[in-house]
């Protein structure tokens, strides 16, 4: 059936998304429609698609409401190839801004907006650089696979980290190696990750820590989207991995430079264990209407 889809294009450090509002959960996009919309030549272009749906109107929203009855809105996220992901760190900041600007939600100064996701409810607040999201607990997960990438002469060990979605972080020798890496082809993990993984390549700044803040550069190949200009959860995983490798005394505040800009990562204690927060810009770029079907 043919229909019109009103959308907004948004981005956070160049990680870009097509957002649309479907409060009743009535719009079902096929993987082909999603990849067509995300196509940069034949569609709107984007690394992913985000649907704003009321948690009450989505099966996965029931778990979100059970966790936090205030989580009225659910971030329904698809990668550009039409696959679903549990979490998107840049996307959830852009989503929060979208909800606010559409008049669907408010974030009062000093308060947080709980948002349902497939990884659980996540709290978003305004920050000096835009928006900040508490991504909750994280865990080492997925072992230490060997990672092969084009232009890496020998495979490198990676570190599996889950921050709601799966990541493997790889340390490179220097900036030249990072810049010359060809991420047009997906890195190969050995052993492969059961559900796939986002793969981050990192190098430390010199010095690694400046004024108490750890500093790294990162490039990423995202599961389901290929190389992107930024990945928020990837930046969080990269900072956690480098802190892990640096050992005792490493900082809990990190500045992560990605091709599309800079995001901040902060680890902090809570009653249920350590949480990790991501901060950075969230911009809405333009609105449009697509004829689909
Ligand atoms: N770019 C996102 C992550 C999007 C999902 C990812 N590709 C996956 O499949 O897990 C971010 O900013 O975190």
From TrEMBL:
InterPro entries: DAP_epimerase_AS (IPR018510), DAP_epimerase_DapF (IPR001653). Substrate binds at residues 15, 79, 89-90, 165, 198, 222-223, 232-233. Keywords: Amino-acid biosynthesis, Cytoplasm, Isomerase, Lysine biosynthesis. Gene3D superfamilies: Diaminopimelate Epimerase, Chain A, domain 1. The keyword Isomerase applies. The record marks 167, 222 as: Could be important to modulate the pK values of the two catalytic cysteine residues. This is Diaminopimelate epimerase. It catalyses: (2S,6S)-2,6-diaminopimelate = meso-2,6-diaminopimelate. The active site is at 88 (proton donor), 88, 231 (proton acceptor). It holds the Pfam family DAP_epimerase. It comes from the Bacteria. Homodimer. GO terms for cellular component: cytosol. The gene is dapF.
